[in-house]
Design brief:
387 residues, alpha/beta, D-Maltodextrin-Binding Protein, domain 2, 39% helix
C-alpha cells in the first residue's frame, strides 16, 4: 500500500470479526496497491452491502471513493471525509457521520433523491399546502395540472439560493463532477484550454469526458447520462438548454502528392476530379458524412468513402496518401506533422459548416454545467479568432 500504515490499521480494525480468517483479510488489505476503502473492500473480497455494517470507520478519508451500494448501517464514520465520493444508493441508517462532509460528495443531490426521501418530502409539501399537488398511478407520479404554473417560481427560488451560496462561498462553492461529452473536432482544438480556464475559475470541479459523435451525445444528453455536451446542432428537446458555441468550416485536405497530381493550384479543382480518389471523413451516422454523400449523389459520383469515428485515423489516411480527408482544417492546427504536410485543396465546392452547440439539461442540478458552457463559449470564440 502507498504509505498507508494508518489506513491499514483502521482497515484491519474495522474488518475484525468479519467472516473469513482475519489473517487472510489483513494480507489482502496489506497487498492492495490502494488505500481507498472501495479498493480495499474489493481486495479483501468483502460484501459492501453487508460486511461494513456497524463497523468502525472513524477518520477514514473516503475522498473520491465509489461507495454506491455500500451499506454503512450503524457504522461509526466520525471524522470521515467524503470529498467527491460517489454515494448514491449508499445506506447510512443509524450511522454516525458529519452531514456537512457528506454534502461534499460528487453526487450528493442524487443521493438525496432516493424514493423514500422524495415521497416523504412530497407528503410534507401536500400537507403544508393542504391540497394534492401530485397525481399518482401504478407506475408514475406527476405534478397536478394546476401546479405546472408554479414550477417557474420554484426554479427562481432555487436559482436565488445557489446565487447566494456562490456569493458567500466564492469559487469553492462550485464543486463536484461534470460529465462532459464532446465531438472530436472540439477535442483536437480548444478543449485543453477550456480545462485550464475552468480549473482557474472553479478549482474544485472535476470532469469525466466522453468523446463521441453528435447523435450519440444527443441521446446521452436526453437520457441525462451527460451534464454537458459540445455537439453539432440542432437539438429538438424542450428540456435541454443550448447556446451557440463555434463554427468550423469543412474542406478537402490532401498530402503533397495528391495535391500536385490532382490539378493546378491556381484553378478550382472540380468535384469530378476529387471523386477519382478515395475520401475519408466522419462516421456514417453524422451530419458531415451525410452531407458529403448527398453532394456526391446529386452529381452522380460514387467514390469510395472511408468513414471513421476517429479523426486521428482520418488524418493519418490523408498523410499516407490513402485518401483525401473531408474534415475541418482547424483540427490540424495542433498537429505539427499534419499542419506541415497536409493542404487544403483549392475548390469551389461548398461543404456545410459544422455548427456546434453547448447543451445541458434544464434544472438547478446542472448549474455547474451551465457555468462551464459559458466559459466554453469564451474559449471557443477566442480560439476561433486565431484559426
Amino acid at each position: 500500500m502507498n504509505g498507508a500504515g494508518d489506513t491499514f490499521s483502521k482497515g484491519t480494525r474495522a474488518m475484525n470479526g468479519i467472516g473469513g480468517t482475519f489473517a487472510q483479510r489483513t494480507k489482502a488489505v496489506l497487498d492492495s496497491p490502494s488505500d481507498r476503502l472501495d479498493h480495499m473492500v474489493i481486495a479483501a473480497e468483502l460484501d459492501p452491502s453487508a460486511d461494513l455494517r456497524y463497523g468502525n470507520w472513524r477518520d477514514f478519508d473516503l475522498s473520491g471513493a465509489d461507495l454506491r451500494g455500500f451499506n454503512f448501517t450503524g457504522a461509526d464514520l466520525t471524522g470521515a471525509r467524503f470529498d467527491n465520493a460517489f454515494i448514491a444508493g449508499a445506506i447510512f441508517d443509524h450511522a454516525i457521520y458529519d452531514p456537512t462532509s457528506l454534502r461534499s460528495a460528487a453526487d450528493y443531490e442524487e443521493f438525496e433523491l432516493t424514493q423514500p426521501k422524495v415521497s416523504a418530502r412530497m407528503n410534507r409539501l401536500q400537507e403544508f399546502l393542504r391540497d394534492p399537488s401530485f397525481k399518482r398511478d401504478r407506475r408514475n407520479i406527476m405534478l397536478a395540472p394546476k401546479r405546472h404554473g408554479h414550477l417557474a417560481h420554484a426554479e427562481r427560488l432555487i436559482s436565488q439560493l445557489y446565487d447566494m451560496i456562490e456569493a458567500i462561498g466564492g469559487r469553492s462553492s462550485m464543486r463536484g463532477l461534470v460529465r462532459l461529452g464532446a465531438e472530436e473536432s472540439i477535442v483536437h482544438t480548444w478543449l485543453p484550454t477550456l480545462f485550464t480556464r475552468v480549473k482557474a475559475a472553479y478549482p474544485d470541479l472535476e470532469f469525466e469526458v466522453e468523446v463521441d459523435v453528435s447523435p450519440s451525445l444527443r441521446n446521452h444528453l436526453a437520457a441525462r447520462d451527460l451534464d454537458l455536451a459540445f455537439l453539432i446542432g440542432p437539438i429538438d428537446n424542450r428540456d435541454v438548454h443550448s447556446c451557440e458555441l463555434c463554427t468550423f468550416p469543412v474542406a478537402f485536405v490532401a498530402n503533397d502528392r495528391i495535391r500536385d497530381e490532382i490539378g493546378s493550384p491556381h484553378e478550382p479543382i472540380p468535384l469530378e476530379r476529387i471523386a477519382e480518389y478515395d475520401l475519408a471523413t466522419f462516421s456514417r451516422n453524422t451530419q458531415p458524412y451525410m452531407a458529403l454523400r448527398e453532394l456526391l449523389f446529386r452529381e452522380g459520383l460514387h467514390p469510395r468513402i472511408h468513414a471513421s469515428a476517429s479523426l486521428e485515423i482520418v488524418v493519418h489516411m490523408a498523410l499516407d496518401g490513402h485518401a483525401i480527408a473531408v474534415i475541418p482544417p482547424a483540427i490540424l492546427e495542433n498537429k505539427v506533422e499534419a499542419r506541415e504536410k497536409l493542404h487544403i485543396l483549392n475548390t469551389a465546392i461548398n461543404l456545410p459548416d459544422l455548427k456546434f452547440l453547448a447543451s445541458w439539461p434544464g434544472g438547478s442540478k446542472y448549474r455547474a454545467a451551465a457555468k462551464v458552457a459559458k466559459i466554453a463559449v469564451e474559449v471557443a470564440t477566442s480560439a476561433y479568432r486565431h484559426i
